[in-house]
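Example 3.2
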Amino acid sequence: MRTIMPNNPERLVFVDGHAVAFHSWFASDQDSVIPGFIDMLIGVVNRHEPAGLVVAFDPPPPTFRHELYPGYKSNRPKPPEEFLDECDELEQLLRSNNVTVCKVAGFEADDVLGTLSDKASKAGMNSLIYTCDLDLLQVLDENTEVEVFSQYRETRTFDIASATRRFNGIGPLNIPDLKALMGDRSDNLPGVPGIGERSATAILAETRDIETMYADLEQVARLPIRGSKRIFRILSEHKDDAFLMKRLATIVRDVPIDIDVSGADVRSFDLEALETV
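Structure, written as C-alpha cells:
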C-alpha cells in the first residue's frame, strides 16, 4: 500500500465533499463523480501536504435551516438520482481506503467544516478548507485559510485580509450580517426587503453587526447614504426577518462531532487504491 507522507505536521485540510462532487459531476458533463473527485482530493493533498484530512458531506434534508425557514434553498433543482447514488458509492470508497468522512444529520457540510476548523484552531493547528463556497469565508481566523475553486476562474486562497477586501471592508465574522440584510439568492434567502449590497455594506461599515445596529437604529437614519430614512423605516419593520436571516446565514461552529482532528492521519490513506479508481 502506497501512502502519503505529510510535510506539514501542524496542517489539516477539510474538504467540502459535495462541492467537489458537484464540480466533478458537471466537469464530466454529468457523467461521473468519482474520478474527478479523487483527482481533486489527491491534488489538494499534494499541494498542501497536510498531516490530516477530513471530507465533510451534506446529509439528506431537512436540516435545522429548513425547519427554521421552509423556503431555504427551495429554488434549487433536486440533484439527479445518478449523482446521489454515486455520492453514496464515493463515501464508501473513501471510508474503505481510510479517508475520514463526516456527515451529521440536521447540519450541512459547511457547519461540519466550521466546527472542525474551530476545533483545529483551538488546538493550535493550522487548517485549510477546500470548497467552492464563499460562505465559508466567515470561519476564517488566524489559523484558518479557505481555498476556493471554481469552474470559471483560477483557484483562490483567502485569509482574513483578502476576505475583507473581497467583501468591501466587511470582515469574515460579519459576512452573516451582510447576508442578513442583503439576502443570498443562491440559498433563497430574501434578506430585508429593499436593502441591497451597497446599503448593507454602508450600514455595517458603521455598525459592524446587526445587533449593534438595532441597539441604536436611529443611527441608520443619520447615515450619509441615499434613502437613509427609508432604510431606517424598513429595518424597523423587519427586525425579526433580519435576525432570522442572520441565523440562517451563520455557519454553526459547535456541531456534535466525535472526530479527533489530530487523528485524521493522511498516512493511513491507501493512495495506490485511490489513484487506480
